[in-house]
Amino acid sequence: MAYPELYLLIDGQRLNHTGRRTMPVVNPATQEVLGELPLANAGDLDAALEAARRAWPVWRAMGPQQRGRILRRAADLLRERGEAIARLATMEEGKALAEARVELTVAADILEWYAEEGRRAYGRVLPQRMAGVRMTVVKEPVGPVAAFAPWNFPLGNPARKLGSALGAGCSVIMKPAEEAPGCALAIAQALVDAGVPAGALNVVFGVPAEVSQHLISSPVIRAVHFTGSIPVGKQLTALAAQGMKRTTMELGGHAPVLVFDDVDVDAVLDQAVASKFRNSGQVCVSPTRFYVQESIYERFAAGFAARARHIKVGNGLEDGVRMGPLAHARRLPAVASMIDEAVQGGARVLAGAEAIAGKGYFYAPTVLADVPDTARIMNDEPFGPVAVLSPFRDFDEAIANANRLPYGLAAYAFTQNARRVNLLGEQIESGMLGINSFTVAAPEAPFGGVKESGHGSEEGIEGLDACLVTKFITES
Ligand code: NAD
Hints:
Blueprint: E1 8-10, E2 13-15, E3 22-26, E4 33-38, H1 42-61, H2 63-80, H3 82-93, H4 97-117, E5 124-126, E6 134-141, E7 145-148, H5 156-168, E8 172-175, H6 181-194, E9 201-203, H7 208-216, E10 223-227, H8 230-242, E11 246-250, E12 255-259, H9 265-277, E13 287-293, H10 294-309, H11 331-344, E14 348-351, E15 366-369, E16 386-392, H12 395-402, E17 407-408, E18 410-414, H13 418-427, E19 432-435, E20 450-451, E21 454-455, H14 460-465, E22 468-475
Parallel strand pairs: 7-8, 7-10, 8-9, 10-11, 12-13, 12-18, 13-16, 15-16, 18-19
Antiparallel strand pairs: 1-2, 3-4, 5-6, 6-22, 11-21, 14-15, 17-20
Helix pairs in contact: 2-4, 2-5, 2-6, 3-4, 3-6, 4-5, 9-10
Bound molecules: nicotinamide-adenine-dinucleotide.
């Protein structure tokens, strides 16, 4: 498949590499250079800010019905163009093609959700305090949004960022990941082809710190939406605070999985292994710390390792491949060093724990047992194809383990005991909790974390609300 031309999308214009710095886009499975990405300079960013400022009232005035029709049409275009876009996602990010196809479908569903939900940005009329006085509360679009989307879901993340802002009536400047630019442009292009007016949607690439500094410090930008690592999220929140801008921060996690001894072990293992190695573990809600009740611990560990060893790793475009490479060159040493440190600290290797030689950023599906709490991998997000296993005795110890880190994005628990399910719901500190399930995302459900995993939610009615402000109007 031919790789598409890359460009910056500013005020409806496609701006190419002429006169701009560029960087190569690399296929992580083959290390082949796919194309050259133009990087925005300060003038480009100013042009994008001016376009977003000018286009906001135009887009807002189109009203939620017309905006909804455009977003719905964009969702249909994505589905029509689906196979080519899914293949592009595998080439740029490495994930298995089957996963990329699902992601494309979800991206279309997200745009459709915001197409519909934009019509329900209801305010309210308050009961009168005195005759002749009317008090109303209205919801309005917050204004131009600066959105930063990472590489791990190169279709889903841009769809969330663009869908929420555009669905609420805001203009938007998005900086997607430089590692997967073709995917972000495919989502943006579907929206443009569906009728989003020039300037309401701008896409820029660049040096991430330069772009975020420039956009967030501009008075044009009224809200900042970021998905990525916790340290970068803290930096961007601090920048936004200088202009008192609203932020939605969807940051990392280190999801605990509590497996109690009343479950069907094989059934849980089938789900757990599929979920763990999805997208090579580069998922913010990836299950990472498996705490397993003592009496089933050894059986669970052996079953996990046996299944992990059978996963076919390779180029995601090839038939039968279930796990692709890590998404870019930086990830390989980052994941390897965490695993090596855990093994030196006493962890037992049950599977993997080595990079796969040859072209591409491949790392073997890895299972580590008896990992001490002091190991870095038990404390920092691994963001790679590695499961760490530890035994627990009773409910209280399991909860203490689950809550021991400063993160709180996703958590999972497996048990058949209804009373325990209730207590888990009350006591686990996380933004999302899967009970007997690893599926914690849906367009209509809020997706976000607590503690250092961030604040605010994407998707669901909360995702739209993040792009709205509340105004109280009193009349007499
Ligand atoms: P990184 O911290 O360099 O980058 C993470 C993302 O943030 C990238 O998309 C990058 O372009 C962007 N970014 C980095 N600095 C930025 C800045 N100053 N302004 C704006 N955007 C900026 O790390 P990486 O090696 O690309 O990814 C690894 C880490 O990132 C992982 O450990 C994981 O914690 C985190 N991550 C999280 C998610 C998520 O879904 N929450 C997604 C991707 C990466």
